Every structure is written in C-alpha cells, then in structure tokens.
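STRUCTURE:
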C-alpha cells in the first residue's frame, strides 16, 4: 500500500469502522491499539522469537483479557529451533518476560561469530557480563591489541537496577544498553554513555540510574584494589582493603562514621541510600591518593 492508503486503513481500524485488520508483520513496529484484543498469526513457526514477542505485544494493551493464537503446521514438521521458539513464548507469558525471552533467543540462535558466518554460543550459561568480557578479550587478541585484564569486582546491592519497559520498549535496545554499560572501562566512558542515553531516551528513571551507579562502583573498586561492595539493610561494606592508622584517621576525617574491621579488612558505613556507599568508595579513593 502507498503511505496515504496505509494511514487511512489504520485510522479506520483505530476508529472502530472495521472489526478485523489483515496485515503483514509490519504491525510489530510499535502500534498501540488498546481495543484490539485478539491476534491470529499464520505460520508462526516461520517468524523469529523476538519478532513473535513484539507481534504478540500488539494485544493485551488495555484492561481487557486478550488472546494470541499462533498457528503452525503439525509439530512433526517443525524444526527443533521453531519448536524451541514457540515453547519459549508459551513458557513466558507474564509481565516483564522480555529479558528472559531475549536471553533464550540468544541461546537458541547463538550470539554469532563476529569474524565469520557461524552462529554459536551459550550466553545464558556464562552470564552476560562475563560473555561481553570474553568477547572483548577475543577480539582484542585477534586484532593484535594488548587488552589489560580487568580486575574482577563484585557489587551486591539491594536496589532496583533494571531498564523499565516504559523507558526503553525494545528488548534489543535494552540488551545493547546493558552491553555498553558492561564494556565501559573508565568513568569518562560511563559519563559519556550516561549523557548519550539521557539525550536519546530522556531523563533516566531511578532503576536505570542505579545501573549506572553500580557500574561506577565497580570501576572505582577496581582502582581502589578492593574486591567487593555489599549494600544491604542500610549498611555498605567494602573490602578487602589494608588501612594503616594514618589512612584510617584520614578516612574518618572525610567520613566520620566509617568503621574499619582489621580482622576482615573491611570498611563499613551505615547509610540508607546507595549514594552513601558510592561516597564511601570515593572517600577511600581520596584517602589512598592523598597517602
């Protein structure tokens, strides 16, 4: 259809002049028609998992119960990959299942071989951050570059840290943001990514800000030489670190309530906000640099 004809048909369906819309997969591209509550997909086995997920999301966009019927040939004729795709959709029907479906899609299709045509890999078995790290090391090695080994650090924070669907609707774009976060190697890179994300999608909601804060903490812990930051129940703990008496006095000059446990080589601080944990790491870095 020409653009004007296409627009007229969609507006007519939106206005309720027609009860049924017959379409190609073009409808997966972000249409929001709340009154549409029944979807029928012919030859669902021929479509990709992410594509089916997006198409299924065209119904159920109001308080009315919605139904999606995916038609395909007899199961004996389906390829193993097609059966896996359809089974994944059937297993993940709850709200917010997009990330689980995206990871399953990566496992089914493979993340790909950047230097060839082979599709292989098991990202879910490795974990996304480790996969990105291994991928970066492999690319650097094959391109003849020397890549510094990142210090393994852990941030265990009881805060909401995720990308809401209301902020970024596309699962592929959500995964891309997680990938870019995991690949940042300096605080300058992180600030640049923060500014770019805000420019593209708007002000960051609190869960996304927490994602950036966690990555910032990891970069600073690596500079500090610590292995972990734990933030639970209003208490932040950083360790293991060695503090002499002079360093401890200097640290308490910056954070009066900081407590150092010699036996565990841990610095802890009571604070109800995760920002307090970041401030503790900043104070420890300033103390180390001053020494």
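SEQUENCE:
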């Amino acid at each position: 259809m020409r653009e004007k004809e296409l627009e007229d048909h969609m507006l007519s369906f939106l206005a309720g002049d027609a009860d049924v819309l017959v379409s190609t997969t073009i409808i997966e591209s972000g249409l929001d028609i709340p009154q549409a509550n029944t979807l029928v997909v012919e030859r669902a086995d021929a479509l990709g998992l992410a594509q089916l997920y997006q198409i299924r999301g065209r119904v159920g966009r109001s308080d009315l119960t919605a139904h999606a019927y995916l038609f395909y040939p007899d199961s004996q004729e389906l390829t193993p990959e097609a059966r896996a795709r359809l089974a994944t959709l059937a297993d993940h029907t709850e709200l917010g299942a997009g990330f689980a479906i995206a990871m399953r899609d990566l496992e089914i299709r493979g993340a790909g071989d950047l230097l060839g045509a082979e599709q292989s890999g098991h990202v879910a078995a490795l974990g996304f951050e480790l996969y990105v790290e291994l991928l970066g090391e492999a690319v650097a090695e094959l391109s003849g570059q020397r890549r510094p080994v990142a210090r393994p650090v852990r941030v265990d924070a009881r805060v909401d840290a995720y990308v809401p669907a209301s902020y970024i609707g596309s699962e592929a774009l959500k995964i891309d943001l997680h990938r870019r976060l995991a690949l940042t190697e300096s605080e300058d890179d992180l600030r640049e990514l923060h500014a770019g994300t805000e420019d593209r999608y708007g002000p960051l909601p609190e869960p996304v800000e927490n994602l950036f804060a966690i990555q910032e903490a990891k970069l600073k812990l690596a500079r500090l030489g610590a292995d972990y930051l734990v933030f639970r129940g209003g208490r932040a703990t950083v360790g293991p670190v060695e503090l002499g008496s002079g360093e401890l006095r200097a640290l308490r000059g910056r954070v009066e309530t900081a407590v150092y446990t010699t036996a565990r080589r841990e610095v802890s601080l009571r604070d109800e906000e995760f920002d307090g944990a970041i401030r503790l790491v900043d104070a420890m870095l300033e103390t180390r640099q001053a020494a």
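REMARK: The beta strands are 38-41, 67-70, 154-157, 228-232, 235-239, 259-261, 266-270.
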